[in-house]
Amino acid sequence: MKPIFLAALASISFGTLAACAGEGGDAGEAVPITGEVNIYSSRHYDTDLALYEDFTRETGIKVNRIEADADALIERIGAEGEFSPADLLITVDAGRLWRAEEAGILAPVESAVLKERLPANLRHPQGLWFGLSTRARIIIYDKAKGAPEGLANYADLADPKFKGQICMRSSSNIYNISLLSSIIAHKGADAAEQWTKGVVANFKQPPQGNDTAMIEAVAAGQCRISVVNTYYLARYAGGDAGAKAIFDKVGVIFPDQAGTGTHVNVSGAGLIKTAPNRENAVKFLEYLTSESAQRYFADGNNEYPAAIGLKANSAVERLGSFKSDTLSVADIGKGQAEAVRIFDRAGWN
């Protein structure tokens, strides 16, 4: 490993979250600290901190955390080897969970609680990781120009009639890689490559910006069509007057409702195979699928709960109901490398 990278890893240190007394014990008494769990997380949402504190209040298990880019965390855990203090890796997107799996840093978890609470397609077949929340990748359009006729599926984005109307993020974005990976899983690599070339031919401008930039470009009339994750758009629905004004200018299409359903991705977590606090880590995984924890995901970051039977918050529900693709998230991970090669050949920069 390069010295610069090792120095960067060394600069990332644990933060500690321990709940205060009086909120989790009997008659206002503090729950005694009975252990700890070490979390390596690439999620950077403030509500996750409240979630960690809630876990400590309930269990007395102290949460230590490191937050950094997922790829850096995966490489760090690999470099630390058997001496890694990491118990759990928490990250977003099937692609990053697949990278952790391929790096050989995860261990299987056998839990009746997790099997009962989570649908099979959001769990790794061998229990190497578990989906904790979901987000859908939807098509958005400029309401001022009207709903684009003939646009109902991801496949329609490649139709030449939409030439010069589409703005998209870079192909290096993990959300786009996972979307293309799901298309590979459903239709095969050849069909996925033809689709990719068709979408590139319809670009109004070179790929740039993030999902927020795509939403604002469509709302401003800069582009007619784009593709974004639901939680980004829901932030505008639940924001201030300016944000709501942007939301009101954007129309929503949940693709493939007559077919396989809209592509859904996850935030998820996996147990590190060298975890020094394995039992506490499994308890934390199970806690993350509880109703109280799922509400933190749903209400705090406008994600869909992964646990069976729980509803999204009102901002997300304003986007509409839909049929989601039940493709296994594990299968989405498998197509990542092929998706990158297809993007490169198609000129989707």
Number of strands: 10
**Terminal CA distance:** 28 Å
CATH topology name of the largest domain: D-Maltodextrin-Binding Protein, domain 2
| Main sheet properties | 10 strands, mixed
CATH architecture of the largest domain: 3-Layer(aba) Sandwich
Q: What's the CATH class label of the largest domain?
A: Alpha Beta
Low-confidence sequence ranges = 1-11, 19-28
Structural class: alpha+beta
> With helices defined by DSSP (H or I, 4 residues minimum), what is the helix count?
15
Q: What is the count of structural domains?
A: 2
Q: Give the oligomer, counting copies of the same chain as homo and different chains as hetero.
A: single chain
Shape: globular
Task: Give the helix proportion (percent range).
Answer: 40-55%
Rg for CA atoms: 21 Å
Order of helices and strands: HEEHEHEHEHEHHHEHHEEHHEHHH
| Share of β-strand residues | 15-25%
Q: What integer is the average pLDDT? A: 91
| CATH level-4 homologous superfamily of the largest domain | Periplasmic binding protein-like II
Architecture overview:
- With 349 residues, this protein is α+β, with helices and mostly antiparallel strands.
- It has two domains: 177 residues, D-Maltodextrin-Binding Protein, domain 2; 154 residues, Periplasmic binding protein-like II (D-Maltodextrin-Binding Protein, domain 2, 3-Layer(aba) Sandwich), CATH 3.40.190.
- Helix content is 41%, strand content 16%.
- Strands 1, 2, 3, 4, 5, 6, 7, 8, 9 and 10 form a ten-stranded mixed β-sheet that branches.
- Strand 2, helix 2 and strand 3 form a beta-alpha-beta unit.
- Helix 6 packs across helix 15, helix 7 crosses helix 15 and helix 9 packs across helix 10.
- It is globular.
- It starts with a helix and ends with a helix.
- 46% of the residues are buried.
- The N terminus is likely disordered.
